[in-house]
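Researcher: Can you fold this with 2'-deoxycytidine-5'-monophosphate in place?
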Amino acid sequence: MTIPVITIDGPSGSGKGTIGQMLARHLTWHYLDSGALYRVLTLQALKAHVDLHDEQHLAAMALHLPVRFVDDTTHHRIFLHHNDVTEAIRSEEVSRATSILAASPLIRTNLLARQRALALAPGLVTDGRDMGTVVFPHATYKFFFIASASERAERRYKQLQDSGVAANYDAILIELEARDLRDQTRAVAPLIPAFDADILDTSGMSIDAVFHYVLAKINPKATIL
Ligand code: DC
């Protein structure tokens, strides 16, 4: 049986994670935040003081990464061993280091099987950078979200402020643009839309508006969902 998969790729802050989680909940499908896998690996490497350029070591760690995704009705939480690292993997330090580590072809290859194994009945919604191009090239429906860098930085700034973390908008913008550049220009699985992806600019759109756009697009495919 072919498991239906919906992919949402795009840069950070484009809304793919929020919409991906909403959609998975709406459809009662599984959800994979693929960026979290790369982030958990980075966190584990930082904790163990592994050199972030030691590709062989990191790739071996990727094969046996003790990560678990736990979904209750309202939250999507991520565990490394028995520790809840949902918040810890979002720090600026982890974000910066992850985009360096994610450029490694060997690490990416070693995370492929784990990602594909999460395509389970009744279906999977997944977001990332290469879900529609590399990991699930035969996905049922593919979205690619974009948004202006200033709006994405603004969203991140608000998110940090709301969670009580001191934030500097200019620093966030500079860091975000540097990360975009690394993700877009790396040799393996760069951040580019799949040829058959539906591209949506979410700048100026509310979460509800994006969600309704996505639902309207996948509804005609309801017979195979
Ligand atoms: O989506 P995110 O911000 O959590 O992603 C964190 C980093 O991981 C980012 O630098 C891009 C990288 N990543 C990737 O290379 N491939 C994916 N499928 C998902 C994320």
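Model: Folded with 2'-deoxycytidine-5'-monophosphate in place. Strands lie at 5-9, 30-33, 67-71, 76-80, 83-84, 124-128, 141-146, 198-201.
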